[in-house]
Write a sequence for this structure.
């Protein structure tokens, strides 16, 4: 019997890109599990295969070997149980649709009444704080607002897990802090499971309940760290905690060791 609370199971995942210039082993051997309702961050050295991993998990890329299971079922292609938010919000929104139209679009593939669809769209737009901009077009919005639209579209779809690939890398520091708090809020209020890839060590510790530190390529999980900070987080007081500093220093040190190849695969 599978453990009921296990949402995502990754076992011995390996991905080799084959090309005429030679093969690239992007992921060596990655295993981990994620429980329903968790917020897990993934960090690792540049080029260690984070995007490759997320694409394999989301069923957008076929692994060379290994297993990805969602709710006990193998993932073999894009699944309605997962929604992905990428860094390039500009390219992921349709400029000719309004905010409302962009959020609504994926729901057209679901069997929903007009009323149910309208409610999901309105709730999602409200949850990301964009009710006042629902009739605007993406090009009339700031970068941070556009990324809020992408998040609203993802949560309106009601996925079991929200997969985010460096979603805030292209926005300014203040907007980034606001969007981090939005993710914490959606996770706390809507019990959404979130898998969040970031380059930013402080962001991983501030957001995550767990941080998976990946090794350099060919990649494995070098550390699965529990973030034992209070669940009520705040940009000023949480980041000022001595424990926050200890955890971010620890993750930083692990990534430096990964870069220098000073770690041994299990
Ligand atoms: N389509 C592809 N064909 C061949 N090699 C690829 C392809 N996509 C990625 N790679 C290689 O796989 C490795 C991992 O790439 P990936 O983009 O997954 O890493 P990343 O950790 O997300 O990178 P970054 O930290 O720069 O965002 C890199 O060496 C990259 O060059």
């Amino acid at each position: 019997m599978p453990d009921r609370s296990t949402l995502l199971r990754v076992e011995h995942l390996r991905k080799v890109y084959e090309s005429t210039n030679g093969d690239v082993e992007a992921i060596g051997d990655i295993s981990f599990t994620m429980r329903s309702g968790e917020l897990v961050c993934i960090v690792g050295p540049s080029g260690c295969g984070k995007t490759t991993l997320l694409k394999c998990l989301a069923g957008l890329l076929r692994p060379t070997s290994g297993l990805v299971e969602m709710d006990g079922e193998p993932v073999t292609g894009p699944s309605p149980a997962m929604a992905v938010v990428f860094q390039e919000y500009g390219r992921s929104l349709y400029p000719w649709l309004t905010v409302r139209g962009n959020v609504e679009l994926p729901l057209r593939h679901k069997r929903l009444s007009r009323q149910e669809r309208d409610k999901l769209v309105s709730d999602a737009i409200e949850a990301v704080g964009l009710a006042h901009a629902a009739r605007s077009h993406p090009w009339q919005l700031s970068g941070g607002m556009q990324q809020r639209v992408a998040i609203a579209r993802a949560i309106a779809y009601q996925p079991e897990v929200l997969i985010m690939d460096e979603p805030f890398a292209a926005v300014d520091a203040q907007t980034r802090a606001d969007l981090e708090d939005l993710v914490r809020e959606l996770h706390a209020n809507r019990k959404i499971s979130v898998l969040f890839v970031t380059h930013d060590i402080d962001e991983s510790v501030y957001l995550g309940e767990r941080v998976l530190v990946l090794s350099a390529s060919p990649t494995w999980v070098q550390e699965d760290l529990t973030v034992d900070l209070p669940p009520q987080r705040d940009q000023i007081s949480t980041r000022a905690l001595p424990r926050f500093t200890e955890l971010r220093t620890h993750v930083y040190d692990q990534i430096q060791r990964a870069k220098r190849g000073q770690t041994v695969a299990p």
Notes: Strands lie at 6-17, 24-35, 39-43, 65-70, 73-74, 82-85, 161-165, 193-197, 210-214, 221-226.
